[in-house]
């Protein structure tokens, strides 16, 4: 079984978990604490960031490692893509995700941690981040999702970062003139796949039972969420 090292609140790790969920795959999940990274993760990925996906080799004598969230999503959807997230304009999708990762994330970090970057005010950083939000608003004024009427790889690649921007100050975000973007984010925050992606798991320690992710698989994952939004799923463990 592929092994995913993850951290629940990291937007890159959210992106990877969403890709795995939409692909309908199952992985062993190792939830980590960033301040106390396990030696097992550092052994396979010395850069020490999440997500990290460890794949068994063909004869299981070696394991291959994917260290970037976008590559994990692409790998997962190449295995299986029942919802057609790759059935889109991939040039446009990749351009949007590039802009998110290289431009928007830069301003997002400074907006979130403005006290660490006193060169500009938090409002300045917010407004610089809004340039990308305005582009998303324009796309969503035309379609329900970023690149059309269906969810694409662009949506799951970008949504965790918009969520993080919104959560810096929810009152400010929902007062901004981006009604389509706000609805898109609200819909995502209530989506059963996102709720499953945000399930809470205890941090992994050597010797723990294997944790299988996700608990809900197949068509059940895409049916209306049977739980209220604030109820977390329980982890499924293998003895």
Layout: helices, strands, pairs:
Blueprint: E1 3-6, H1 11-23, E2 27-31, H2 39-44, E3 52-56, E4 63-66, H3 69-79, H4 90-112, H5 122-140, H6 153-168, H7 170-173, H8 179-189, H9 192-197, E5 210-213, E6 236-238
Parallel strand pairs: 1-2
Antiparallel strand pairs: 1-3, 2-5, 3-4, 5-6
Domain GST C-terminal: 81-206
Domain GST N-terminal: 1-84
Pfam family, one: GST_N_3
Short description:
The chain is 46% helix and 10% strand. The chain has helices spanning 11-23, 39-44, 69-79, 90-112, 122-140, 153-168, 170-173, 179-189, 192-197; strands spanning 3-6, 27-31, 52-56, 63-66, 210-213, 236-238. It is globular.
What can you tell me about this protein's structure?
With 239 residues, the protein is α+β, with helices and mostly antiparallel strands. It is 46% helix and 10% strand. The protein has nine helices and six strands, in the order βαβαββαααααααββ. It has a six-stranded mixed β-sheet. InterPro entries: Glutathione-S-Trfase_C-like (IPR010987), Glutathione-S-Trfase_C_sf (IPR036282), Glutathione_S-Trfase (IPR040079), Glutathione_S-Trfase_N (IPR004045), GST_Omega/HSP26 (IPR050983), Thioredoxin-like_sf (IPR036249). It comes from Marinobacter albus. This is Glutathione S-transferase.
